[in-house]
Amino acid sequence: MECSPDTGRCYVPGVCGNGELEPGEECDDGNTASGDGCRGDCQSLERCGNGQLDLGEQCDCGDSRGNVRDPGCQGQANSSLEGVCRTDCRLHCGDGELHGDELCDGELLGTSCVGLGFDRGQISCNESCIPETEACDLIGWRRETIGIENIYALWGTAADNIYAVGEETPEDPYFIHHYDGSQWRNIEARFGNDCAPPVWDCVALYGVWGLGPDSIYALGDKGLVLHRSPAGVWNQLDIGVRATLRAIWGTAEDNIYLVGHAGDDGPTLLHYDGARWRSLAAELPALPAPVHLDGIAGHGADDIYAVGVVGSSDEGVVLHYDGSAWRTVAAADASYLAHVHAAADGHTLAVGLHGYIAERQPDGSFREVSERLSDGLIGAWSSDARQAFAVGRSGDILFSDGTAWEPVHSGVSVRLETVWGIAREVLVAAGWNGTLLHYRHQSWLPTPRPSDTDLRDLWASDLHIVYAVGNDVFRYRDGAWTAMGADLGVKLHSILGRSSGELMVGGRDGVIGYYRDGTWTTVAGGTGAGGRIHALWESASGHVFAVGFPQDSSLGYVMQCQGNACAAAAGWKGRVLTDASALYDVWGSSERDVYAVGENGTVLHYDGDGWTRIETGTEEHLFGVWGADDGTLYAVGDRATILRREGGQWTEMALPYAAARFSWMPEVQLRSVWGSGPEDVYVAGNRDGLLLHYDGAGWAPVRTDTDQPLLRLWGRSQSRAGEHDVDVFIAGESGTVLRLIKRL
Fold this sequence. Notes:
four-stranded antiparallel beta sheet, Methylamine Dehydrogenase, Chain H, flat, mainly beta, 61 strands
């Protein structure tokens, strides 16, 4: 204990908190608490700029006196303009302002991923103020290349457990690759052959399949069969044949079948009973020539299909095993069949040469179900009858939703050999030159133009019958557009398909045309010459609203009809809204909850009794309106205006003006809006193919591969058995029609 002669205080020497400033201390205020001007260890006066991290500070890189101590400060003192730390000892990164060496600062940069090799999304900013593309996404098929010369087969059990097999080369002797959810890696699987010169004893694997993650088979040239045991070891199996093996399938370890090209003993069809492999060639029905079998699949031990070709001809063959015997199955006009796929729901699909696609019918036969859209199809996969893919030559990928097959843009021209997936979780296609494509569950479908006229609206009865309007009504069916010859004498601006199968269109001079039983009639013309019907909408109960403006006026005009009365002029009632400007779009959740938008920021609401004007705070012209099931409402218009009503409040949404490609965004007209939900909304604009998407976090451009102005969106969303399908149709100038499909 010591006592100070100056103060008379006695204290324990050499202890922080004794109230005496002693050697080695910066301060001592008589306690060991921090935040009171002297840090609890007596080593800091807790002044921002002293180079020490004190209570309440995010950083302290010192001041201009050169007391930088923290190596994380990178030798720079506190600064309001640069460095790590601000002069108030707060971090520059995260303050929402761009300083010094920062590349970004904030949750979203507002910069489009388009132009960086992506199709949609916004670049985000991480906690280190470095841009990231994690939120960027691709539409359609994403190409990868792995270390196999040619890939012939794919199979897996999950999105993080996929196998690819193919061709061995001297440069790359690995012909089995595995995907673990993040990367592909090769698997050591060499079995005595010498692929190097001068021997050139190279082999290829053409099939891969398993009973689960612990028992996997691969097979190929010269009777080669490999098996991966539960221990993860690949072993070669002796099956007693040297023929080229093409496919394998089974129901259990003691019930496995494999097929291949014909050998000296006839067709190659072997069965494994858990003890030995046995040829079933003698049990097959008599055929006019040796049969080469390329595919096998089934729905159970008593429902198995094998497909191939008869001899050197192009004649396809289908064999079926019912648990007791193999029999041929009728497959009219079948070309060389390269693959058969059996889905869990009973859907059975076979594909082959010349684009042949056949499905099993209730009587067990196979019937061709599509026009031939490819020179040759080699692989196929389906989750069920409503989602099927086929791949083939020249990068061909075809898709069916259960009603029709259509081509899908793959982005490649190489031969595709195989496609495989798991329900809606993962889909992969692969082929020559190591090409491997991952599907992003959304894709642009190639759609021809119906004409060179500007198209101002469209509607689809299903994915394969689409209607569009311009100077006529055009119908897309069976892969081609035809003009319907509406002959209504005016340019058309809107179209509506009714649940009864009839069509309505609206256009200039207030004309409304009605299509029934193959005949067009004019049922309304209430606006007079110079007026216009811009949009049509129908409630679930059949109540139809039409909006526009009357002759020689900039006021709003509304017409209504109900049910079958809409087919006659007497069924329509119209009125001019003197407190509203010209109207451009209409949408509702029911006939008692309808919204119309138009010039000078006009937003109107109809409650079943009358129309009421709603103030939103904008005077911009509004061209589109749409609402989600949760009550969220969107309206879009001039100068890139997007309004959202949520909880009764209208707000203007921020857009990614910083996107270089869309630097003109503030000048653009947004013409239409549609979504499948409040976090999946699309907006089309009248410049350079502008399409924006809102994902719940922000708006970002979407690649459309067109420079035409886009004028109208129409879409539909369906949820079935936990699966969500979204189909978006877009109409634009010069006959532009775009279709985006999403399978989630």
